[in-house]
Each structure stands twice: as C-alpha cells, then as structure tokens.
Design brief:
The chain is of the alpha+beta class and about 1100 residues long. It comes from Acipenser oxyrinchus oxyrinchus.
C-alpha cells in the first residue's frame, strides 16, 4: 500500500515540474520580447507548441485524477508496540489495482443493470457497519481490513496533594473608584490575562460596561440586492465531463491576455463536500522550491483519495433546471436530456410527477415555469406510490414558485386553463347547491333552536308554575295553621298569661326586598330592641331572644348582670343580685354566616337555621310558648309552623296593608279621629298635581305640605315644600278675601286659582321640594320616581311653630282586650320628621283625649283582624286662629316599637308601673335606712308610698368614634364622669348595647324625678360621651348634637310653661285672698 502512495506522489511531482517549466518558458519568452522590443521576433510557433503541451497535459491530468479519485485506500494497521516517527508514511498504488480501476472511467457505457450493481456495491463499501463491507473490499480491491486491538489502560499515577493556598491574592478595586462610578478603575496588564469573567466578578470592570472586541470579528457591509428579473447564468452541462476535474492554467498574474499565471488545479469534487488529506512532504518541498514569492495560489492541489460523501451523491449534483412553457414538456431540450440521463434509474417516478406538474400548470394556464430538477427528484423519491402529492408540494419544485403561486391564487385563474369552462360550470352548480342546502340547514337550525327555546321556556314555566303552586300551597298551609293556633291562643289566653310560659322574641323587619336592600346595617337595625329581655320581670316568664348579630361574651355578661339587678332594686342590697341566665337565652341563627350580604330579614334566616330551630324546640318542650315578632313576614308563619307555636300578631298581608301610609288613612277614617288634611293612594304625576292644587286652595292657611311614601319608615320617604314662595299664592289670598270663606268653597271661584297652581306647580316642586333623607334619595327626580312607583299620600303640616309629636303603644290581646302599654313625647334630630327617642310618660296632651283617640283607632284595627302590638303617632299644636290645642293622628305601625322595648327596661330597673290612662310613672319610694329625728309634739310625716318619675330614652344614638373604644373602657369612662344608675334612688342612666363588632351605636335611658331633670341628664351624658371619645381634628359622624339641640328647645318650652303655670297659680291664689 505504501508503494501505491509513493508512485502517486512521483507522478504528481512530475506534473508539477512540467507546469513549472512551462511557467519559466513563458516568462523567458515575455522577457525576451521586452528586451528586444525594437526587433521583430516571431514567437507564434513557440506559443502554439506551449498550447499543445498544455492541452495534452490537461487531458492526461483528467485521466490521472479520475483514476486516483476512484481508488479506495486504507490506512495501515496500528501496531501498539511500534515506534512513532514524525515522517509520514510513503505509499505507492499497486499497478494491478490501477489497471483494475482504469475501465471505470468509461462507466457511462455500462448497462443499467451493471450500473445498479455498481451503485449498490459502492453503498456497501461506504457503510462500515455493513456486514458485507469487509468481504467486498477484499474481493474487489484486495484490501484486507486490519483488526484493531484495544489498548491496555495504564493505571494513573498518584500525584502529591498540595496543601495551602494555590492562588495568589487578587487585586481589589480601590475605595475611591468604588464610591465614584464615573472613574474608570485601573486594570493592570497581568489582570487582563485572567479573563473578562474574573474582572467582572471582582469589580475591576463595571457590570454596566459595554464590552466589545477590537477589531471586531465581523465587519458590517451593505448586502447587494439584485433585481428579481436578473437570472443566474448556469453553464450547460452534458455527458460525463461534468464529473471530471478541470485543469485551469493561468500563465501570468497580470490582467494581460498574454501574461502567465501559476498553475492552479481545481476540481468539482471539492464543491461536492469531499475533502482530501493534505499533500505529501515531497510535493510541498517541490512547490516551495520553484514558486516565486509574489505568486499566491488560490486553492490546494487536487486530493488523491477522497472519502465517500455523507449523503446520496445525486442530492449534491447539479440543479438541472429546465423550463416548461404553457405546461408542455420539450423532451428534446438539452437540459431535460441531461436531467433524464442523470436520473435514469428513477426516471419513471420523476416522469409521473412531472406529468402531474404539467397538468396542474395547464389547469391554471401558467405560461412559464422553471423546474428545479434536484427538488423534483427529491420529491419523487419522497412521495409514495399511487398517491400523487398535493398541488402545494408540486409547485414547490419550481424556481419561480412565488410567481406561480401568486398566479394560481388569482381569482378566476383556474377557469382560464384546461377544462376551465367545465370547472366553472361545476363551481356554479356546487355553489348553488351549497347555497340551497345551507339555506335549508340554517332554516332547520333556526327551527331547531326555536323549538329548543320554546321547550326550555315551557319546562321552566312548568317548573315555575309547579314551584309557585307548591309555595302557594305551603303558604296557605302555614296560614291555616297560624289561624288555628291563633284561635287556640285566644281561647286559652287567660290561662296562658297567668301560667308559666316562654316568649320567643324575633325582632325581624320583614319589609320588601328592595326596601331591605336600601337599609344600611339591617342586622343592627333589627337588634335595637334588646329591652325585650326585660319581660323576665314577670316571674312566670322565660325569654328566648333571637339575635340577628353575634354577641360577644362581654355583651352577654353585661345583660346577665343588668337583668340580675331587679331583685337588688327591690331590696336595695347588692348581695341580692341573682343569676338570670337560666331565665333568658340569646340565640343567633347559624345562617347568618352563609347569607351575610343578602339583607335577609331575621325570620328568613331563622327558617334556614335548622340547628337553632332544634334548640328552640328543646327549650320550649312541654311549656306554653308563643312568638312576638317585629314587622311580620311570611317566613314568620313558616318558623311558627316549624316550632308549632302561635304568633301574637296579625297576618303578614293584613299587617303590611294597614302599615302603609294609605292604609293608615283608611283606619283613621273608619275610626273617626282627627287627621291632617290630605289625600292618599296617589300613583300618577297628574293625580299628584291635581290633588296638591286642590288641597292648597281648600287650606290656604297651611303653608307647608308633606309627601309621604307608602312603604317607607322612620321618615326616610318624606319630602316637604312651602307654598309661600309661589307666585300665585299672594294673588290667591287676595281672591280669598274678596270672595269670603263661603263663596271660596264653590268650584267656580276656585277654578282660576286651580289653573294657575297647575301651571306653576311642576316646576315649583322640582326647585323648592326638600328631602328629609338625602342619602336615600339624593335628588327630587329619584324621589318622585319612587313615590309614584310605590304610591303615597299628601298631608298637611300643622300651621304652628311649636309642634309636639307623640307615640302611643297599644296591645290587642288574643281575647280581644285592648290596653295602652306606653306613651311618650318624641325627641327629634335634624328635622322634626325624624324621631330618635321619646320622653315617657307623655306630658303634651290631655290623657283622656289621648286615651279616647287611641282606643278608637285600636278598635278600628281590631275590627279588621289586627292583633298584637301596634304603635300610633300623633301630633299636637295650638291652632293660630282659635288658640285651642289640636291633636292629629298621623301614622300607624302594626309592630313592636323601640319605645315599648325601652319602657320594659325602665319598668324593670324602677319596679314601677306606667299608668297610661293618667300619663304617670309610679315608682315605689326608696327605703330609708336612717330614721329622721322629729321635734317634741310634732307628728311623724308619713313618707309617700309612690313617687312620680320621668324617663328619656333613645335607641338611635350614633357616633362613629364609639368603635375605637371597647365597652369595658367605655363604662370606666362613664363611671369616672359620674354617669351611672343609683339603685336605691332608682334613677340615673342605663345603656343598651347593640353589637360587639362595629360598636357605632347604642341605646340610653335616663330616669329622674321630673322631666326637666331627666332631659338635662340625657343631654349632659351625650355631651360628656362626645367630649371623651372625640378630638378636635376627629369629630366623627354623630347625631348627638342634633339631639342636644332639640332637648335644649324642649327645656326652654318646659321652663316657660312652668313659669306660666306658676303665674296662673299665683293669680288664682291672689283672687281667692281678695274674695276671702
């Protein structure tokens, strides 16, 4: 094998020497021509001879390179024990091998079968892992592949372990450069050799520095853009000459045609990716000996032993591009013939694919298409049999596939080619059929959707009907059970009220859902009546109080101690305080946690709290019990049905009907009690304007009118307006004086004034109407919309500057007995239409007149099936013309009131009796421990057995700063300021705690021997509390100031009345003396 390599090296050296000789000869001829430029020398013969020599040399070089490139060589065996040398091994090809491979030059003349066999053998020889590789090399070329022996692994020598630091101290950035980011830190030259990463980690190079390489490894240059119309010129190919090496001889490095360049041998094998080993040492020495320094060769010599290519050779061959015009194949074109000859073994699949491509081009009338032969061959080899590729894959084999795709996607292009007319007809028919079927399908879909919607609506309607029917049946069953239990309660009431019984208090506000959602803190509003616990002052009564808020242990202990003082009040000794926790229970429904944002009334929450229901059943088992509710709701009947107990109250529908403002007017009209002028059941704007206009004309002495909504409570749905600013009001007064009272009542006299009022009233109301609660109704438009949707009444305001409102609580017992259980004068805050407390008992109206009026109203309610507690609001004033006291009935609520709950606490802590018939609170006189000494002969004064007391109470005290003070701190503060209750004297101040979470509201009651003292104590307590919990820069939101101002006005009137009564008594006494 070394002989073969050596012979090839000698032959190469010979060729190189010949090339160098020719180069020297050309140079000498050129030099002679330059030296003898003045003489005429004929050198044509020499140039012709040199050209013939060059052609012959090129021919023999091609044959030689073809032989060498087709020769397969192997490396010698590696001997493990052989010595290594720096000189490369020299080898020469065997003459037999060269003679055997020489016929392969004319491989193009072999038959197709032999070519296929040759290609298969070449693939086997290229694949070293093929089991036939070793045998085929030995058979064809006589090459015996060596067997490699594995080297023995020598054990690694152990090195000595180095101890101590192996790296020296690294430099650190000076402090001046660390503190000043604008200074560039010094980097020594030796530090730069440690790498950029080390410099960055130690801070020698800032982390934000822009690092670049100088000079840059890549230099930017503008890329030339060629026009798409320019085509790359490819040289025509043909025959076998494309595979042979081309030997180019450049006789000069100059640009002249007669100059001579150094010999440069290039081959197309290098273009195919075949890399040869470097040339031998002999060839390098010979080339360097004869080569002059200025001459630089462009490439290396041709490799003698190329390695097999990594992929199929056909994939790296020429492109073989040819053109198809109008979808036709020119089988005699040289490009196509060369392509066919190169891919003759797979021509069948390529031809089928080419025919499919031409059919596609004909269908779309593509005028010119340039086929890339290599892509076509690849697609033909990759496509499956009998499965033609998709059109997009066919078009991808074209050089101008972008233009062809653009042309094919042009609308209507398909109908310009072969079969376009038929295709257009098919397209029209298919489009029409599609449209017809689509229309039918859409109609079917619409009908199906409509049928589904109708079916679902019907199912929902049927389900709703069934549910309504079931709920209606359930409500009817609850109502029937309520009526039957009410009859049983009425029949046994005398026995039940004197025997051991349990009262279940459910202070629920069963308003409509929209009204409940408009109430802020509905749970706290339902818990203002904690005074109901004081029913345990009757020894035969136990109380179960359903609380709408979760009370803390601190609040429960407060009520336990407060209720345990009633025995202390009797004896006056603190040692007699009793534990009353077994007499009352405070229960909170567990549904409160699940429905925190739904604003449900308490009875609804209790209905969905089975654990609380079960506990109440266990507490009332075997005892007489009944429910005392608040504003009754239909769920109160459901709760009573679950507990199987009666309700001391009316049916929910009856209670809601007569609790509205229009229902109140009907009750008052049937009772025959005096009411303010007005109209009710107003539901339209035109009706309201006509009613207001007529009322103004009939009552010119009344200057303020009220608009009240039917369903609102607490003055929230009230507005008022004064007519004194109307343009036509002064004119109407003149007309009234001109006609006189008798003539003015006639319609013909009122008609001009009525027309003027109707014309002016709409705009006047929008400008001068004033709202009582602007948080609930921020504008007149909003108020008017709600007023007309709910209905309401128009009512006159008393024509007086001094007005007093009263609240009277009545009870209709199940056996029909009627009694007055509480009465008091109202205390207002802000406006006279918002009540926040009362003073008990009332002292504004003659008790007989008040009792007579309230009994008539209660009798009217009883005749309409009303039972239980009800609250009546009245107003009294002095008429400006007659100077007589007038009493008007203004409102009626069929529910348990806040005043009644505070009255129960007052009676518990004073052990007194409220006589509403005489409007007196009779309190037993306190026991005296020390007897008073008396003079000789003086009779002992008998102390009075009872004394008259007054109480001022409120459950609507609000202050946002109360939330910052815990109850224990609050009571310590009150104790330090002298705010408390004297048990022996049975007077002082008591508090009602509403909740333990927000703590922004509370209730308070002050008891004194006279009304003036109780009012002053109440106002003083509010002032002290406000000063203790407020700061100059944090006053908070409160109604304390409004209440204090109203109490001060009441005190002024009280003092004036007392002075007048004293003067009258003095005048009467003086008259009696004169008479005597």
């Amino acid at each position: 094998m070394a002989d073969i390599i050596r012979k090839k090296d000698d032959l190469g050296n010979i060729i190189i020497k010949v090339q160098e000789d020719l180069c020297h000869l050309k140079e000498n001829i050129s030099r002679i021509t330059i030296e003898r430029s003045g003489e005429v020398i004929d050198i044509q013969a020499l140039e012709t001879a040199i050209q013939r020599t060059e052609n012959g040399l090129r021919k023999h070089a091609e044959e030689y390179l073809n032989t060498v490139n087709n020769q397969i060589l192997t490396l010698p065996s590696i001997d493990e024990n052989a010595g290594r040398t720096d000189q490369p091994g020299k080898w020469k090809p065997k003459s037999e091998a060269v003679r055997d491979r020489w016929p392969l030059v004319a491989a193009a003349h072999l038959s197709p079968g032999e070519q296929h066999k040759h290609a298969t053998n070449m693939k086997i020889m290229y694949d070293a892992s093929n089991p036939s590789n070793r045998a085929l090399l030995n058979e064809k070329y006589g090459v015996q592949m060596p067997r490699l022996n594995r080297r023995k692994e020598e054990p690694a020598q152990l090195q000595k372990i180095s101890r101590g630091p192996t790296v020296g101290n690294l430099s650190v950035v000076p402090a001046a450069f660390r503190n000043n980011p604008y200074l560039v830190p010094p980097v020594p030259e030796n530090e730069g050799k440690k790498g950029m990463a080390s410099l960055l980690e130690r801070g020698l190079v800032p982390s934000a520095a822009h690092i670049s390489i100088v000079p840059p490894p890549v230099r930017l240059r503008t890329m030339p853009l060629h026009s798409r119309d320019e085509k790359h010129a490819t040289a025509p190919t043909g025959g076998i000459s494309g595979n042979l090496a081309g030997l180019h001889l450049y006789l000069s490095s100059s640009a002249e045609p007669n100059s001579i360049d150094p010999i440069l041998i290039s081959t197309r094998l290098a273009q195919k990716g075949i890399h040869a080993p470097p040339p031998s040492v002999v060839s390098k020495k010979s080339a360097s000996k004869h080569r002059r320094p200025p001459i630089q060769p462009n490439t290396e010599l041709v490799p003698y032993n190329p390695q097999p290519p990594p992929v199929t050779p056909s994939l790296h061959g020429p492109d073989y591009c040819f053109t198809l015009c109008d979808g036709l194949i020119d089988y005699r074109a040289p490009d196509l013939l060369a392509f066919k000859q190169h891919y003759c073994l797979s021509w069948g699949g390529i031809l089928s694919l080419l025919e499919s491509l031409t059919e596609l081009l004909k269908e779309y009338a593509v005028p010119v298409a340039i086929v890339h032969g290599q892509r076509l061959a690849e697609l033909a080899m990759g496509s499956e049999l009998d499965i033609p590729p998709a059109p997009e894959y066919l078009v991808s084999v074209l050089e101008n596939y972008v233009d062809v795709c653009e042309l094919m996607h042009r609308p209507g292009q398909r109908y310009k080619g072969v079969g376009g007319v038929g295709m257009a007809a098919v397209k029209i028919q298919s489009s029409w059929r599609r449209h017809r079927v689509r229309a039918a399908y859409l109609e079917y879909r619409r009908q199906k959707w409509a049928a589904g919607a109708i079916a679902i609506s019907w199912l929902l309607h049927a389900q709703m009907v069934r549910m309504k029917k079931a709920l209606k049946g359930s409500h009817q069953r609850h109502l029937e059970n309520f009526r039957s239990r009410a009859k049983h309660l009425a029949a046994n009431w005398n026995h039940i009220r004197t025997s051991r019984r349990t009262i279940i208090h459910i202070p629920s506000l069963g308003y409509s859902q929209p009204l409940r959602f408009s109430v802020n803190d509905l749970d706290i509003q339902q818990n203002l009546q904690m005074g109901r616990l004081c029913d345990i002052q009757d020894p035969s009564v136990d109380v179960i109080y359903v609380c709408p808020v979760k009370q803390s242990v601190e609040v429960q202990q407060y009520y336990s101690r407060l209720l345990g003082l009633h025995k202390v009040v009797d004896s006056g000794l603190l040692e007699d305080a009793a534990d009353m926790q077994d007499r009352f229970k405070i229960l909170t429904p567990e549904a409160m946690e699940s429905f925190q944002t739904h604003n449900m009334c308490l009875s609804t929450l209790l209905k969905y709290s089975p654990q609380t229901i079960k506990r109440i059943k266990n507490l009332i088992k075997g005892k007489h019990a009944y429910v005392v509710g608040g504003v009754l709701h239909k769920d109160d009947l459901a709760v009573a049905d679950l507990l199987n107990v009666p309700i001391l109250g009316s049916e929910p529908e009856v209670a809601h009907l007569y609790s509205t403002k229009s229902g109140n007017k009907r009750i008052f009209a049937s009772a025959g009690v005096p009411t303010p002028p007005g109209e009710y059941d107003i539901y339209s704007l035109q009706q309201m304007h006509e009613v207001v206009s007529q009322l103004i004309i009939d009552n010119l002495n009344i200057r303020r009118w009220l608009l009240k909504m039917d369903s609102e409570f607490g003055g929230r749905g009230t507005a008022h307006f004064d007519i004194s600013h109307m343009k036509c009001y002064s004119w109407m007064l003149k007309e009234y004086r001109r006609y006189g009272p008798e003539e003015w009542r006639k319609k013909w006299a009122q008609e001009p004034a009525l027309l003027k009022i109707l014309e002016e009233l709409p705009e006047y109301l929008s400008q001068h109407g004033k709202l009582v609660n602007k948080k609930r109704f921020p504008s007149w438009k909003k108020f008017l919309e709600t007023f007309l949707s709910q209905g309401g009444v128009v009512e006159a305001c008393p024509p007086s500057e001094s007005i007093t409102n009263l609240t009277v609580d009545m009870l209709i017992e199940p056996n029909g007995e009627m009694s007055m259980v509480s009465c008091g004068d109202q205390i207002h805050t802000g406006t006279p239409l918002e009540c926040c407390g009362t003073s008990v008992p009332q002292s504004s109206v003659d008790p007989d007149i008040l009792h007579s009026t309230c009994m008539r109203i209660t009798a009217a309610c009883k005749s309409r099936g009303v039972m239980g507690y009800l609250s009546i609001d009245l107003v009294t004033f002095i008429h400006p013309h007659t100077l007589e006291q007038q009493v008007w009935t203004t409102d009626l609520d069929l529910c348990y009131s806040d005043q009644l709950s505070m009255t129960q606490l007052m009676l518990l802590m004073t052990r007194g009796r409220l006589d509403c018939r005489s409007s007196q609170l009779e309190v037993p006189a306190p026991a005296r421990d020390v007897k008073q000494p008396r003079r000789h002969g003086e009779e002992a004064a008998t102390p009075p057995t009872v004394t008259s007391h007054y109480a001022v109470m409120s459950t609507q005290l609000r202050h946002t700063n109360l939330a910052m003070v815990h109850y224990s701190v609050f009571f310590q503060m009150c104790k330090a300021q002298g705010v408390g209750f004297d048990i022996k004297e049975r007077q002082g101040t008591l508090f009602i705690l509403h909740d333990s979470h927000k703590r922004q509201s509370l209730g308070m009651i002050t008891i004194g021997e006279d009304l003036q003292g109780a009012l002053m104590t109440f106002a003083r307590n509010l002032s002290i509390i406000h000063q203790e919990i407020s700061a100059p820069n944090m006053q908070g939101e409160t109604n304390f100031k409004g209440i204090i101002n109203d109490i001060e006005g009441i005190l002024g009137v009280t003092i004036e009345n007392q002075a007048r009564s004293a003067e009258e008594r003095l005048r009467v006494h003086q008259k009696k003396k004169k008479f005597v």
